[in-house]
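Exercise 7. Predict the joint structure of the components listed below.
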Amino acid sequence: MISGWFVMLLAIGYLGLLFAVARFGDARADAGKSIITANVYALSLAVYCTSWTFYGSVGRATSGGLSFLTIYIGPTLMLLFGTVIAKMIRISKAQRITSIADFIASRYGKSQLLAGLVTVIAVIGVVPYIALQLKAVSASFDIVFGNPVDASEPWWADSTLAIAAVMAVFTILFGTRHLDATERHEGMVAAVAFESVVKLIAFLAVGLFVTYGVFGGLSDLFRKAAASPELARLFTVDASRSGSWLALIVLSALAILFLPRQFQITVVENVDESHLRRAVWLFPLYLLVINIFVFPLALGGLLHFNGGGMDADTFVLTLPMAEGAAGLALFAFIGGLSAATGMVIVETIALSTMVCNDLVMPWLLRSRWVNPSARKDLSGLLLSIRRGAITVILLLGYAYFRAAGEAYALVGIGLISFSAVAQFAPAMFGGMYWKQGNHAGAVAGLLGGFGVWLFTLLLPSFAKSGWIGKGFVEDGLFGVDTLKAQALFGLTGMDEISHCLFWSLLVNAGLYVAVSLLTKPGAVEVTQAERFVDVFRRPGDGGASARLWRGSASATDLVALLERFLGPARAQQQLAAYARTRRLDDWKRLPADADFVQFAETELSGAIGSASARVMVGSVVQEEELGLEEVLDILDEASQVRAYSRELEAKSKELEAATAELRAANDRLLELDRMKDDFVSTVTHELRTPLTSIRALSEMLYDDPRIDLNERKRFIGIIVTEAERLTRLINQILDMAKLESGRAEWTNGAVDIVAVVRESMDSVGQLFREKGVELATCLPESGPIVLADRDRLTQVMINLLSNAVKFVPAKAGRVTVAMVTAAGEVRVEVADNGPGLAADECEVIFEKFRQGGNTMTDKPQGTGLGLPISRQIVEYFGGRLWVESEPGQGARFLFTVPLPAEQDNNQDGDN
Amino acid sequence: MSRVRHTSAVRQRLVALGLVGLPLLTFPLVSLPGGEIGGVPGLFWYLFGIWGGLIGLAAWVAERRGG
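Solution:
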């Protein structure tokens, strides 16, 4: 139906496109214009969705219903705990960590043993998973070719091998551009993100086609399926599976952190920590979208083929083909190929780094060939080792795929592989959050967990495939009943994955904690534990890192070492950058101190892993071993220094605040003092004016008895008025003092404010009539009731009215009193047609002894205390008093009194 | 300093979301939805609904400025 050559060309063409994308990504990175944005980062995380997702999910859904979703819900939940990932990224950047093996080894004292152990577990657990991807590619070839491949076909004619070879070339080209594995492979990440988009669109296209093209939409599909009791069973989940439901969520949550490819993409390839914020929701969204049509596809396939023996894992391809949509089938094929390629490439890079740094390097360093005293550039050799490792890993995967065929050990490897990497969890979490976790504990935990995993999961899968005897599964190890591989100590009723996860993590975490508590850590471990667990509290470590290394080194030796492993050009570039951070122009003048040794070791870690780096640096410097006690002392001291400096900082902040408060208080006191002085001098002045005129007139009367009676009467009249003024002034000063000191007496009660206004107008009516001033009103019949002191309110009103009458012209004067109720307060207004006030006067008149008009030339018309007192009173009731005026336009004095709360509501209701 | 504090507040909110999500997406709660709505099984709606809701909330928490 579809020409084999065409399919092959299409596949090769697609891979060519990937090369172009990767090339473009690398070119942009070299030009300093990275295309790795937060979105690209989030999409590249979708390397999690392999062909096992693309094809296998549908297969899982045909047997387990919706339980396949647990594999994607787990990562969603884990991403929400992004703080763990952020810590992993921060630690890895600080320590130049390049793989999960390096992470664990570095934390537990840069141990070669641990690095090797983790690498072995990862290789055993993950290489079969790579084989599974190749198998999926091969199976999809068979389907689109339309004829099962002849088993007798020679291996060299196998199209899968060709694809694997292309993948190897891609990985070598884009995965080993630099020796320094902490250098990011931006081209590869871009290609992976591109693949994520392709597989998503391909899967959605098939899903939409089957759901809406073959069937009449989701509800039609589900209704048809519901008619068959066999299929309707898949609609609900059985409570007896609750254990495995949770186990799969936990398992996949751990896998998203610890699968070597996920660690590579999430941690090593991370360009910017803030990208994590986008990934936290965008990657889960991707998982959700790619899974929407899995279940409908599974049901559609079962309905369509009517249980006709078709492999459910191939529905994504066979459904479109059976419906004659060959183009769509080809697109799906490309999607599946994408899923497989992305996974294989990233996984192979991650594994090759581990194999090179943690298995081959330790062996090489011991051999005489790379004797540290020989000064040979090894960077080329290292790159070749890594490239060789890539080829070997892919070949291993291919060989396993050819050897295993349809065996269960291959088909079921997805979750078996997840369970293997889950064994890293105790050492990783403990390493990041528990300082007491140590090397012996980590080794014991990993060995124990790995052993249990081998015995309860991997070996039984071999037995199921018929490769080894089934005795230990059916009758127990050595015939001991309690040692049945998948019912350990009689634990039954769990599926094999939950069973393995339970026992392996129990043994793993148990051993890790117990052995850690029972043994003493080494000095390096304690240092590293401090650096890992407290990574967010650094870099202010109180100078401890410099003091944690003691010995003698030669700068020439260290530089030579760097040049050998990084290549001269790269080494000198890094040295120059480092010299700049220490404010030196020339790196040749760098002193060979602890800090420089630390720098050299970190740089080497990026290239050959922390454990090997430590060995190499150790070979050229004479390090004085620090005892555990000494290290602990230094770290204690450092943490004390940190604590002290924090305390000091807090204290100095407190001190600053207190100083500021004191300064403000002092300013206020000075201001008050000045005001008091002003007040006293003003009062004295105000008192002297009437006193002077009283004294002058009295003296005249006393000295000259011949003044005639009329004159005498006039003088005495003035004396009486001035005395009254004096009394009034003194009363008001007393009143003011009382108000200001808060000792005034208030008798608050319900007051009808209109009545108060009318009363005040009556009592000053005589003044208006005498001067011939018109007093107009605009008042309601009865006004609102407010809570206030009646006499004080009257005082304010009389003051405003008598002010107004003072300033308006005789005969033509006009004063208007109005009242408005709005927004929870009542506003009273006294407007006149007097000379008005300039803008700057509008505030001044409310100050003590300041009056309107020119006090220098005019005779003062009041005491200058009426308005300040009125303002104090109104503010005491919770209102405001102010004036609105322009020169020549008259003045409007306004004051407000708030209405009581319930009145307030009524008013709102009325409005 | 305030940026650090903001980041940590966002992280804590996300962790809280995760802690809410776990019981919602595991037994015994997932055994409750039954029947069908518009022909589609209740469990299908439930799982995708809660899952999508969590993602939506996470996006809101992670992307909003200043919060």
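Discussion. The CA atoms of residues 21 and 54 of chain B lie 7 Å apart.
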